[in-house]
């Protein structure tokens, strides 16, 4: 990749800003995405877990936008509000001492030039309406857990720059389509764990050994590939499960039910208890002898 070196002329660009003003040291793929974000339009990034999406892409991009475009708006959202509050904004606040006169709150930032960075939770689709702004940057982190309705609301705002990033999930949903049926509307980037020197090679090797090179988890977490699940043959599609885990519904009390999964040999025997809409695994164990597994189930039932 032939990327220009940042100089004082390029401080106004996202890369020059990240290196020259924020003092960050970026990997080549991070520079490539930030250079790309200098141009208006939509970008989709699928990257392995812990690659640096939040700290090295979302944070410098939002701060750059606030500095470069006075009186304009940056909106940041993620699969879960907790992620906005506990990951995205702390990554931004880490640079607070470099920005005298700015107000850094829990989920919003105001610059003296009138720019604002606002964090949104994804259960507030309605609030995305009306953010029409002649120069709007929208950053969607952990995009695989963001419902399609939120993306539709974001697109209606016609952002000048849109960046959607995530470790890849299942083969459906808006984030997936940004790499497939709707790929012509996005500039794509893919980042594997091997491009991230802070991720130890020994950890990568261990995950591959533990889960298998072709397991959906390893394909997504390390190779940044969408998880090929046969969603048509599953009772609950993986993407729906991911969204539910990211945005769990409120607890509703109700009847108590038990569920047991008997295994013979390799797999785990499982006893799960459902109370209302919450299910908990009460016991899970491996047991070669099926009769002693039955005995254990009986003891647990009692
Ligand atoms: N250029 C870099 N040089 C060194 N370390 C980096 C670089 N970019 C990111 N990191 C480190 O990578 C780690 C993970 O960063 P971050 O949380 O931003 O990743 P992420 O892709 O958002 O992870 P997740 O998949 O959990 O959301 C952090 O400890 C961060 O400091
Ligand atoms: Mg992150």
Helix and strand topology:
Layout lengths: L13 H8 L6 H10 L3 E7 L5 H16 L4 E5 L3 H13 L9 E2 L3 E3 L5 E5 L4 H4 L7 E5 L7 H9 L4 E6 L7 H4 L9 E5 L9 H11 L4 H6 L16 H9 L9 E6 L3 E11 L2 E10 L2 H12 L1
Parallel strand pairs: 1-7, 1-8, 2-5, 2-6, 6-7
Antiparallel strand pairs: 3-4, 4-5, 9-10, 10-11
Bound molecules: adenosine-5'-triphosphate and magnesium ion.
Adenosine-5'-triphosphate (ATP) binds next to α3.
What does this structure look like?
The chain is an alpha/beta fold and 302 residues long. It has 2 domains: 8-201, Rossmann fold (3-Layer(aba) Sandwich); 251-301, no CATH class. Helices cover 34% and strands 22% of the residues. It has an 8-stranded mixed sheet, covered by helices on one side. Strands 9-10-11 form a 3-stranded antiparallel sheet, with helices on one face. The longest helix has 16 residues, at 53-68. The termini are far apart. The relative contact order is 0.12. Magnesium ion binds at residues 53-54, 87, 141.
> Largest beta sheet: what is the strand line-up?
3-4-5-2-6-7-1-8
How large is the radius of gyration? 22 Å
CATH homologous superfamily name of the largest domain?
P-loop containing nucleotide triphosphate hydrolases
Q: What order do the helices and strands follow?
A: HHEHEHEEEHEHEHEHHHEEEH
* Overall strand count: 11
The coarse silhouette is elongated
CATH fold node name of the largest domain: Rossmann fold
Number of helices: 11
What would CATH call the class of the largest domain?
Alpha Beta
CATH architecture of the largest domain: 3-Layer(aba) Sandwich
Number of domains: 2
Helical fraction: 25-40%
Question: Roughly how many Å apart are the termini?
Answer: 65 Å
Mean pLDDT: 89
- Structural category: alpha/beta
Approximate strand percentage:
15-25%
Low-confidence stretches: none
Q: Catalogue the ligands.
A: adenosine-5'-triphosphate, magnesium ion
């Amino acid at each position: 990749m032939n990327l220009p070196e940042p100089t004082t002329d390029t401080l106004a660009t996202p890369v020059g800003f990240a290196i020259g003003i924020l003092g960050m040291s970026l990997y080549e793929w991070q520079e490539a995405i930030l250079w790309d974000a200098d141009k208006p339009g939509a970008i989709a990034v699928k990257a392995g877990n812990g690659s640096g999406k939040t700290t090295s892409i979302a944070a410098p991009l939002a701060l750059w936008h606030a500095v470069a475009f006075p009186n304009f708006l940056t909106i940041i959202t993620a699969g879960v509000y907790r992620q906005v509050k506990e990951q995205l904004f702390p990554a931004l606040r880490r640079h607070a001492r470099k920005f005298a006169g700015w107000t850094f709150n829990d989920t919003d930032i105001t610059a003296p030039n009138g720019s604002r960075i606002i964090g949104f939770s994804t259960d507030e689709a309605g609030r995305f309406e009306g953010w029409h702004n002649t120069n709007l940057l929208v950053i969607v982190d952990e995009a695989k857990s963001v419902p399609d309705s939120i993306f539709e609301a974001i697109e209606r705002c016609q952002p000048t720059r849109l960046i959607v990033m995530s470790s890849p999930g299942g083969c459906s949903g808006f984030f997936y389509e940004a790499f497939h049926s709707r790929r012509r509307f996005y500039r794509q980037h893919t980042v594997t764990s091997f491009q991230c020197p802070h991720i130890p090679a020994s950890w990568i090797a261990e995950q591959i050994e533990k889960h298998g090179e072709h397991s959906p988890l390893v394909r997504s977490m390390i190779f940044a590939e969408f998880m090929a699940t046969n969603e048509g043959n599953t009772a609950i599609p993986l993407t729906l499960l991911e969204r539910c885990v990211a945005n769990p519904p409120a607890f509703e009390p109700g009847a108590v039910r038990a569920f047991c999964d008997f295994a013979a040999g390799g797999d785990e025997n499982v006893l799960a208890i459902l109370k209302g809409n919450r299910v908990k695994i009460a016991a899970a164990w491996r047991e070669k002898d099926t009769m002693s597994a039955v005995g254990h189930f009986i003891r647990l039932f009692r």
